[in-house]
Amino acid sequence: MTTHSAISLLGWLALCFAGAWLGSAYTRPSLANWYATLSKPSWNPPNRWFGPVWTILYAMMAVAAWQVSKHEDRPAVAVAIGFFLIQLILNLLWSIIFFHWRRPGSAFVEICWLWCSILATIFFFAKLDRMATALLVPYLLWVSFAAVLNFSIWRRNV
Questions:
Q1: Could you point out which of 69, 80, 82, 93 has its C-alpha 20 to 30 Å from the C-alpha of 123?
Q2: H or E segment at 106?
Q3: Counting beta carbons within 10 angstroms of the beta carbon of residue 146, is it exposed (0 to 12), middle (13 to 18) or buried (19 or more)?
Q4: Close Cβ partners of 154 (under 8 Å, ≥ 6 residues apart)
Q5: How far is 17 from 128, CA to CA, in rounded Å?
Q6: Domains (range + CATH), the chain
Q7: What percentage of the chain has pLDDT greater than the value 70?
Q8: Is the pTM here over 0.70, yes or no?
């Protein structure tokens, strides 16, 4: 790996984990005094699972974006990275809507948009890099699970 490539990877890691940190900053204050009081399905994972899962997913997202950013087809890279950035913003927005604003119904609508943006990102990444595409599949699966959980929590607490 060249120095330039290593710096690029560090930049993608920094960007993704900045998003993770911001999302966490909006999430943490509501965990004990609001989220804990909500009715949740029996299959709701323990809170302690979310940090490690998201850490792995954000690292995989960063590596995927880095892989795509190295390709020669600059117009295709620009489109793919554009969708990547949109989904990263929507990911943060979900935390704000669900935890900070405490709006599970609105968060469910937003997570559907997030899911679509991840799928679009995967579609455009697939045109450039097979490994990058594979790195995003667990993220799509986790957000799929999160969407079902979000829907269940919303309906149980209306």
A1: 93
A2: helix 104-126
A3: buried
A4: 104, 105, 107, 108
A5: 24
A6: 3-156 (1.20.1260.100)
A7: 100
A8: yes
